[in-house]
Amino acid sequence: MESVDRKPSAETEALVREVLERVADKWTLLVIEELGGEAGPRDVRFTRLLERVGGISQKMLTKTLRQLERDGLVTRKVFPVVPPRVEYRLTPLGESLGAAVCGVWEWVERHKDEVRRHRGTYDAARS
Amino acid sequence: MESVDRKPSAETEALVREVLERVADKWTLLVIEELGGEAGPRDVRFTRLLERVGGISQKMLTKTLRQLERDGLVTRKVFPVVPPRVEYRLTPLGESLGAAVCGVWEWVERHKDEVRRHRGTYDAARS
DNA sequence: TTCCATACTCACCAGATGGAGAGTGTGGAT
DNA sequence: ATCCACACTCTCCATCTGGTGAGTATGGAA
User: Which residue, among A107, A117, A119, A122, would best test binding to B if mutated, counting the most B CBs under 10 Å from its CB?
Assistant: First the structure.
């Protein structure tokens, strides 16, 4: 067969999936978007993220941020003051992911009405 | 421009999230990738997808395809033969999503080693 | 008559997900 | 002495996710 296979290797494939799943969870994209919004602030505090990413719980925000930190996508700056002050910021790597994700984000914004229309048609057809 | 607020409205925001979550689940991206691979076949049968998207179960493949169909991203062509023959194909809308997703896919392939390295460092630092 | 292929659908169930709400530590303000 | 701010961390628990394996329909082949 021409162009052989796009399969790079089982291991690479597994890694791609692993990273993809990390990125593609319920909150990660929202948090990245919030940290990387072009006009938005660069360093963001925990509580501010909690407010901006509406609906997220403390637990999930913490977890999401830890995962992003582990993957080298955000840095966590702790100020030894009281009450605590912690600031999160996208790393260059995180920013590059934000840019890539931006394409999907834009697709959704551009096509959401079309998607909604299709859903309506589909649902109506079998009710 | 300052682009003031990126917040379009609570309703739009909700829709974006809804579509985003649909797209960002465990299997959707894999299935789209399989249907939209540039060198890959256009019309794909159920069983073939089952083989190509390794690890997916019948149940989840069916569910994923139904969701994609509902959103107008794939068409489902049923041939009235026996044994059954069903072919799936990306719609133009689905292809445009595939293109957008491609950016993320490429990011992952390009940066997966870096991510893996960060993970190693992070894990080592607190073991 | 029995088997087979294909594309499902369904019931069951373990494990993962994630929300709610309480608890923690510290030092300054009241 | 008490309270508060902030950024967590922990436990409990309901819901969701998704895998397994069985069942279904149909007509042709053996």
Answer: A107
Q: How far, in Å, CA of B95 to CA of B117, rounded? A: 33
Q: Which CATH architecture has domain B10-125?
A: Orthogonal Bundle (1.10)
- The domain segmentation of chain A, as residue ranges, is 10-125
Angle (CA) B47-B53-B57 rounded to 5° is: 65
**Half-sphere exposure (CA, 13 Å, Cβ side) for A69?**
15
Which residue from B2, B8, B26 is facing A39, i.e. has the nearest CB? B2
* Maximum CA extent, chain A: 65
- Are residues A103 and B103 in contact, defined by beta-carbon separation less than 8 angstroms? yes
Would you state the pLDDT for residue A120? 93
Residue-wise pLDDT for B45-72, tens only, equals 999 999 999 899 999 999 999 999 999 9
pLDDT of residue B71: 94
pTM: 0.85
